[in-house]
Structure formats: structure tokens, C-alpha cells
Design brief:
Layout: H1 13-19, H2 22-25, E1 46-48, E2 51-54, E3 56-65, E4 69-70, H3 80-98, E5 105-114, E6 120-121, E7 124-133, H4 136-156, E8 164-171, E9 174-176, H5 178-192, E10 197-199
Parallel strand pairs: 1-10
Antiparallel strand pairs: 2-9, 3-7, 3-8, 4-6, 5-7
Helix pairs in contact: 3-4
């Protein structure tokens, strides 16, 4: 059975297909073979890796709260832009100083929005983060540390309340079973040639 999954990047396609009765309308397979484009390999080459292969992902929205006011009177405000800036820097220390260098981990701030004018300090700033890891324990540590850092920066700045941290999407890490991976590598090499099927790092 070949299934084309829509909306993979926003983690909604698979659940929508299951709600739509995928496994009632078609036989439930014994195992799944997931295929994904990867720009690190040349066209026509297939990559594989047994064990943990693709990272777990959690995408977060973090809203930092402050007290807005006029930019000429910052002492009358609690500036969420400054809190957010310190948070971005603080988040970089989680992977660098809390995670074993041999464990894969990423905390990326991909988006930051706050304010509307040169001379107005806003009430809030919104950051969007992606968090990635291969080990569930590492992933939990990352998420707990993000909350700790965010709350700590808010406390240090005397913010009116803790940041709002919302999980928007999330997936578990991909784990490729070794025996099935070997079986599929043999089949792919038989069809494409040995040089066209190569092992990739996780």
C-alpha cells in the first residue's frame, strides 16, 4: 500500500488520514517504510540509517509579557523586547552547557515579533522556537529548561507574569528497526545499484 501523506510539515496529515478511516478502508500494514526528500544527497541516491534517524520535534510559541509605554520613558515600563532578547541569548546555553556534547540537541528561535513603532515599548513579544533531539530524556530536559529560562528572565525583569509557552506541533523521533532496514537496503541496492544506496548520519 502506497500512501501519500499531506501536511507532513505541520504534523496534521497523518492524524487526518486516520480520522478519515485509513485503516478501515485499507488493510493495516505490518510495518511502514517512510520516504522523505533530502537535499544532502544527489538526485537518484537513496539514504538509510538504522536506529534513531530523524529527530523528535516540538514547535513552541513563547509570549513574553511586559508593561508597555513611551520609549522616552523606559523607566515607567517593563520592556518585553529586552526580556525576549535576554531569553534568546539564555536559550543558547541550554544545548551548550546542559546537554552532553555526544547527544544531539537543537533549540532554534526562528521568529521574533514585538512592537509597532520606534518610540513605543510594547506590552508583549512573541517568539517561535523549534526544539529537536533524538533521545526522549534529552527532549524533556530541553523543554523543561526552556520553561525555566523563560520564567527566570521574566522574574529578573519584574515582568507582570510568566511567559505563555504553547506547544503548537510535535512529533517523536524516527527509529528505524535494524532488520527491516537491512532488508530494504538489500532490495534497494538490487534495484538501483550499490553506489546509489548509501548510509546517512542521523
Amino acid at each position: 500500500m502506497l500512501v501519500g501523506q499531506p501536511a507532513e510539515e505541520i504534523v496534521s496529515g497523518a492524524s487526518a488520514m486516520i480520522r478519515d478511516g485509513l485503516f478501515k478502508r485499507f488493510p493495516k500494514p505490518d510495518f511502514a517504510l517512510g520516504i522523505h526528500d533530502d537535499a544532502s544527497l544527489p538526485a537518484g541516491v537513496v539514504g538509510f540509517h538504522a536506529g534513531f534517524f530523524r529527530a523528535a520535534t516540538t514547535n513552541l510559541d513563547v509570549t513574553v509579557h511586559g508593561k508597555g509605554g513611551h520609549g522616552a520613558f523606559p523607566h515607567n515600563t517593563i520592556d518585553p523586547i529586552v526580556i525576549a532578547a535576554r531569553l534568546v541569548v539564555g536559550l543558547q546555553t541550554i544545548v551548550a552547557r546542559e546537554i552532553n556534547p555526544l547527544d544531539a540537541a537543537v533549540v532554534t528561535v526562528g521568529s521574533i515579533h514585538g512592537g509597532t513603532a520606534w518610540n513605543i515599548i510594547p506590552d508583549q513579544v512573541k517568539l517561535q522556537l523549534t526544539v529537536r533531539s533524538l533521545d526522549p530524556k534529552v527532549h524533556k530536559h530541553l523543554l523543561d529548561a526552556i520553561t525555566r529560562e523563560a520564567n527566570g528572565e521574566a522574574l529578573a525583569a519584574n515582568a507582570p507574569k510568566n511567559p505563555l509557552i504553547e506547544t503548537k506541533t510535535g512529533t517523536d523521533a524516527v527509529f528505524n528497526e535494524a532488520a527491516l532496514t537491512r532488508r530494504m537496503v538489500a532490495a534497494a541496492r538490487g534495484a538501483l545499484g550499490t553506489g546509489k544506496v548509501v548510509e546517512m548520519p542521523p
